[in-house]
């Protein structure tokens, strides 16, 4: 079997990918090329037959597994029964968890809102294993509503979740009780108890980090800190992996051996305890990989069987993939196994370094290089300080933070008095480090934005990396050429947007708000009109959530980064309503903004003033604009038609910036929240004004897009930016009627998600993210 299991892992990877990916033809063709090469290298036709056999078997298994991932519920169901399957997440007045249906491998995501503070205690006592009967409104999970966005519907589907139960308002609709459970349920309850213990005993600054390091639970990390970990390339330190499993295994091994237990019995005990630890630690792909590899080593040690590391990791890969084929598309699974495979295969390179510090540096560098294509593909950015941060922070976590967290967890159970000093010491260390990471992240963090690459680019990068490592191991001078090719391919992806000749106008779905992105060809200019913003209504303290919805941080910035946008030439804030400028806090923080345009009117309120000051502090130049101002880039012209010099609108909406844009002889009118009075002024002052594409004012409100305005502009298309199922019932039927009577094609973000107009060759193409 020596080395063969690696070939089986390769074949299984192709088989599962071909079964579950929409690109079956390309994957199968690639598989036969790889199988042929491996067979030629091994000079064995039997190798080819074995690889094909394994690939076909895993293809069938994954296909059958996917076919069985169905639902027994329907949209007509209003009450469901089941067991709580995970640690419930309580944030303000919201609690969410998964409910496992009886006698079927299906789960339902439950989202409940607590309506009374007195009922909060009952929800806090909800544990995994509780049996619940819940009434609410069942619906299919939301799919991605923006281009290049995370597909939450597919994420839940891969976990056997086909429905979400929402609009559950409290105890009246939900009845739960304790029930006798299985050993698996008991483990989940122990995990929940451990996390709750950390919340009760650990200092606030340590709670999130301790829950992540001990139980693999990141939801307690502050949003800014967690985002800094991810963007700076050190998020893997919060994942329980080989380091944690090694410490636990080594400690238990020494403890049992020193207690007089034979090494053989210790191996058997660890084979029982390590799977338990994997479940307590959250059963993420990284911890499952580490535990499985350790178990294989223990089995071989117990029965005196030789096992090569490459065989151990290959078997772990196969076991996990057979357990859950969807793991192949999990970013944590991909990163964990890719880095581990690379480190094991490069053992000869590390042996060339005589000092431990040099070996550690080589390991860190190789991990960064091999993970680079996957990180860019999934997250579209890469931090240039990731390597030095890992070199410095990994030893701190390994030698100080992780051992101290483990010790304090158990020490605090014995004596809080002795633990208090060490809590204070560790809290200050962690506070300093997290403060530094957050500061670094907020000040750029040397984060390079690459955009979303193609699958071909990812494959090409891995081929180049493998060739470079082979040449480096053999000390060939041509390794310099391979390294240069790696750098050139990375630079190609970085500059690719600047050779893109398409013009795109995207109406981003930010819910009940506006956000419009204009990309001129070859990155001549990038303009962002508004950035959305969720309007929060007054709440009591107990109802406030730690993580407020922020379309700028959660939607607009990720979309810009997926396009490789690093610099926004102009950010146009049409007026001072939060649903237009709220998301721009994140944009000005994470993007290089040239000029921020705001209407030349009296700034209405301290909130808008605070935003403008924040934008200026982030380096944006403020420009207050009015009718008559204009700019152009080549043949593309942009003219401001509103507000007037005196900003005499009766409402804040009527002082919105209105832009008349001409791009490829197509007239666009972006109207913000302009209402009827402002529209009448445009009709009166600009008798020859026309628009091919109209951005309907005020989200399709009855106060905008009047019949006279539509008849005057004679548009062929109109876009209404409104939130799905919004509380204002936008767009109003009268607006739809006005547009339909004028034979205008209507595009709506509430129904179709993001709308993207692309000028290609000699005409416009319209792309909708969601089919109606």
Structure description:
- This protein has 772 residues and is of the alpha/beta class.
- Helix content is 49%, strand content 16%.
- The protein contains 27 helices and 25 strands.
- The strands form 4 sheets. Strands 1, 2, 3, 4, 5, 6, 7 and 8 form an 8-stranded mixed β-sheet that branches. The protein has an 8-stranded mixed β-sheet with strand order 16-15-14-13-12-11-24-25, with helices on one face.
- Strand 24 (755-760) and strand 25 (763-768) form a beta hairpin.
- Helix 12 (309-323) packs antiparallel against helix 13 (331-345).
- The mean pLDDT is 89.
- This is Competence protein ComEC.
- Pfam families: Competence, DUF4131, Lactamase_B.
- Residues 512-724 form the Metallo-beta-lactamase domain.
- It is found in: Cell membrane.
